[in-house]
């Protein structure tokens, strides 16, 4: 289930990021052992992959919590305050995620 979920998240993230996300940085979602989604917002066009490489910002979150955030059932700030979401590196990059995750 987790591999399928990460594949689905990767495809959805590609659609939401598009050619230019405006992120201007690299970002990695680490789903606590269930997989990685890496967004290269520095490349032109932007790319999304499952590579585990260094990023300007790494967000560690469980798959279920990430899905709840995307579905609007869990607020990102609340998840952070509860320790369900951890941010390493440049916090400003994480703050730019709202508009990207909200795109359809």
UniProtKB/TrEMBL annotation:
Sequence ranges assigned to domain SCP2 in this UniProt record: 21-101
Protein name as annotated: Sterol-binding protein
PANTHER family xrefs: SCP2 STEROL-BINDING DOMAIN-CONTAINING PROTEIN 1, STEROL CARRIER PROTEIN 2 SCP-2 FAMILY PROTEIN
Organism: Oleomonas cavernae
Record-level GO cellular component terms: cytosol
Highest taxon of the lineage: Bacteria
Entries under InterPro entries matching the protein: SCP2_sterol-bd_dom (IPR003033), SCP2_sterol-bd_dom_sf (IPR036527)
